[in-house]
Amino acid sequence: MASVGFLGLGIMGKAMALNLLNAGFDVTVWNRNPEKCTELVVKGAHQGISPKDVAANCDITFAMVSDPDAALALCQGPDGVAAGIGSGRGYVDMSTVDDGTSKTIAHLITQAGGRFLEAPVSGTKKPAEDGTLIILAAGDQSLYDDAKPAFDVMGKMSPYLGEVGQGANMKLVVNMMMGGMLSIFSEGLSLGQKAGLDGQQILEILDAGAMANPMFKGKGAMLLNEDYTTSFPLKHMQKDMRLAVALGDQLDQPLPTAAIANEAFKQAMKAGFADEDIAAVYKVVK
Ligand code: NA7
Fold first, then answer.
1. Residues 5-14: what's their mean pLDDT?
2. How large is the average pLDDT for residues 136-151?
3. Where are the domains of the chain?
4. How far are the Cα atoms of 20, 31, 133, 190, 216 from residue 168, in angstroms, in the given order?
5. pLDDT of residue 1
6. Given 103, 125, 171, 235, the catalytic residue
7. Residues of the signal sequence (predicted)?
8. Residue 14: active-site member
9. What is the pLDDT at residue 274?
10. pLDDT 10s digits, 45-100
11. Distance, CA of 159 to chain centre
């Protein structure tokens, strides 16, 4: 099996790196806060000293960090991935960023002789743990072929979407729709209960009709129980909405519904729910 690096052991990265380890890959991990490496090291991973060190010593290095600034920070500077990647090795950034950031990272890596693939994912904590993510890959096709065995461990589907930027764009389209749906779902559930309807019955009726979907089912139970245990941090959804609205500006595409949903997530951030689950957007309309 190829030696793989994994940078960023947050909610998603930890679960994904653990699956690679359990599948028999030789895994080297690094996290900004090194304490998060301990659990994986105990289970057999090596610990890298910097992103540069990991990229220099692994055939393919994966990264899963919070946002565009974090993704760029991993690559730049004397300890960054670009300083270590060298010729022919691969770098796969699985963080959700905008297409511009992804292209900047692609440039940094390819200038240094490496191969680059962006591969943001659709799916949160549970699919990351279960290895059932949807991986949206775009960029160097030879690296896609080499990374496929690892993708098959981390996800249930990993379509190749073309040139760098298209994975990022697909992810923003998907999450923009998810944020919009969650926002109107919260308003509906709140309106119904204010009108005296039973919340559980609202969920059952939705689930029996054309609007049934796994997200309403999963998040619906959380809303009724006022359980906001973080599976998908709300601050990351607001980032995705912000990046999608910015893409709309760039492409002259009207996004009135997404823009308003973005405002609801901003309100939730301001109210102090940034680190809670996306379900906490309900609290601003409740
Ligand atoms: P988490 O659980 O918030 O984890 C974020 C990770 O990103 C964590 O490992 C952080 O390290 C790391 N991070 C954040 N900023 C930096 C900088 N500047 N440099 C290096 N590392 C950094 O997020 P999730 O796992 O839920 O989500 C990850 C991605 O998937 C995100 O793009 C989502 O939109 C989808 P720390 O532990 O704080 O040192």
1. 98
2. 98
3. 3-164, 168-285
4. 23, 23, 15, 33, 25
5. 66
6. 171
7. 1-17
8. no
9. 98
10. 999 999 999 999 999 999 999 999 999 999 999 999 999 999 989 999 999 999 99
11. 16
Fold: same for 3-164 and 168-285: no
Residues 112 and 127: their CA atoms lie apart, in Å, by 33
93-103 pLDDT, tens digit per residue, is 999 999 999 99
CATH class of the domain defined by 168-285? mainly alpha
pTM (two decimals) = 0.93
Q: What confidence score (pLDDT) does residue 2 get?
A: 80
Say if residue 225 is exposed, middle or buried (CB neighbours under 10 Å; 0-12, 13-18, 19+): exposed
Nearest CA to ligand 1 atom 12: 65
Give pLDDT, residue 47: 98
Q: Which two tokens stand for residue 250?
A: 């760039």
Query: 10 CA distance to ligand 1 centroid (A)?
Result: 5
Torsion region of 5: left, alpha or beta (phi above 0 gives left; psi -120 to 50 gives alpha): beta
- With the most atoms of ligand 1 within 8 angstroms of its CB, the residue from 9, 14, 49, 66 to mutate is 66
Report how far ligand 1's centroid is from the alpha carbon of 70 (Å): 7
CATH of domain 3-164: 3.40.50.720
Closest CA to 164 of 143, 138, 135: 138
What's the mean pLDDT in 237-246?
A: 97
Task: Tell how far the Cα of 14 is from the centroid of ligand 1, in angstroms.
Answer: 10
